[in-house]
């Protein structure tokens, strides 16, 4: 009996001691949680104000002189204009396209304007071709500091960018990366993949604290028409959207790249629409898409 009473007394004292300790630990955990929440809220509000401020006072544009810039799809359209304008800004342009004739025209145009460009013919749909391209580029020019792409090839150039903590990857995706396009499900799936890859790259760089390598995800809406394809797009609200040329599109893309924006769109004002479609309920986004339907049909 005596031993039982001693044990009970000891256990009672121990539990009385532990109870306030548990309460203190819970209080401490709660305080830490509140501090973390407050920190997130404050920084989120600051980020919103910063984004608003940058609408009126954007960050200065960086120089591209002597940067080795690889452009996938430089044979025509926006890709060609990107290559030409990059060369005008002083970059050394690596023009990559599977159409050798068109790509040669781009390179010749750049050289006539006093720029520097190199020609590479490659079908990037095959992995082994991309591997050979990466090896050849490294042999010819060494480090590639800028990569303009619309497919899954950054892994062949990213490790060296990380090692040097310098570089810029620009993912070009059409509006199909935000919404389904009629009769073009494979295209939509591929463009969603490009967007997912770009966002994964951003997160990978953030987690690994690599601040010298930038990623810009650019949504190109289907309102860009070449002079030889005037009937490609049928606009439901032409007075609002209008059309822009590949020259203007490339200029807009490069401005966003030179300011290190993580995301951009062509036209610029539709970036907010893309953000809005991500947060609204499904039914609301469907109504907005029907309202702004461009009537694009590539079938």
TrEMBL record:
<comment type="similarity">
    <text>Belongs to the short-chain dehydrogenases/reductases (SDR) family.</text>
</comment>
<dbReference type="InterPro" id="IPR036291">
    <property type="entry name" value="NAD(P)-bd_dom_sf"/>
</dbReference>
<dbReference type="InterPro" id="IPR002347">
    <property type="entry name" value="SDR_fam"/>
</dbReference>
<keyword id="KW-0560">Oxidoreductase</keyword>
<keyword id="KW-1133">Transmembrane helix</keyword>
<dbReference type="Pfam" id="PF00106">
    <property type="entry name" value="adh_short"/>
</dbReference>
<feature type="transmembrane region" description="Helical">
    <location>
        <begin position="27"/>
        <end position="56"/>
    </location>
</feature>
<keyword id="KW-0812">Transmembrane</keyword>
<keyword id="KW-0472">Membrane</keyword>
<protein>
    <submittedName>
        <fullName>Epidermal retinal dehydrogenase</fullName>
    </submittedName>
</protein>
<dbReference type="GO" id="GO:0005811">
    <property type="term" value="C:lipid droplet"/>
</dbReference>
<dbReference type="GO" id="GO:0016616">
    <property type="term" value="F:oxidoreductase activity, acting on the CH-OH group of donors, NAD or NADP as acceptor"/>
</dbReference>
């Amino acid at each position: 009996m005596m031993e039982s009473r001693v044990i009970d007394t000891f256990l009672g004292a121990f539990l009385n001691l532990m109870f306030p300790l548990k309460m203190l630990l819970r209080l401490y955990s709660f305080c830490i949680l509140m501090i973390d929440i407050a920190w997130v809220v404050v920084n989120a509000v600051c980020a919103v104000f910063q984004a608003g401020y940058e609408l009126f006072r954007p960050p200065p544009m960086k120089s591209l002189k002597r940067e080795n810039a690889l452009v996938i799809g430089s044979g025509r359209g926006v890709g060609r204009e990107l290559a030409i304008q990059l060369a005008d800004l002083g970059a050394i342009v690596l023009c990559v396209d599977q159409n050798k004739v068109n790509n040669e025209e781009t390179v010749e145009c750049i050289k006539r304007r006093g720029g520097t460009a190199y020609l590479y013919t490659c079908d990037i749909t095959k992995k082994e071709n991309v591997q050979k391209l990466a090896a050849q580029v490294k042999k010819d020019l060494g480090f590639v500091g800028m990569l303009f792409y619309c497919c899954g090839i950054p892994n062949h150039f990213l490790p060296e960018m990380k090692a040097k903590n310098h570089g810029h990857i620009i993912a070009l995706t059409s509006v199909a990366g935000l919404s389904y396009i009629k009769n073009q499900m494979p295209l939509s799936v591929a463009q969603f993949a490009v967007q997912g890859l770009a966002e994964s790259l951003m997160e990978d760089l953030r987690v690994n604290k690599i601040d010298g390598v930038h990623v810009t995800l650019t949504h190109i809406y289907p309102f860009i028409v070449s002079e030889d394809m005037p009937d490609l797009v049928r606009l439901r609200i032409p007075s609002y959207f209008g059309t822009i040329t590949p020259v203007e599109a490339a200029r807009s893309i490069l401005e966003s790249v030179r300011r290190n924006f993580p995301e951009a769109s062509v036209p610029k004002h539709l970036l907010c629409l893309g953000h809005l479609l991500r947060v609204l309920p499904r039914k609301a986004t469907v109504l907005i898409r029907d309202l702004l339907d461009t009537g694009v049909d590539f079938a």
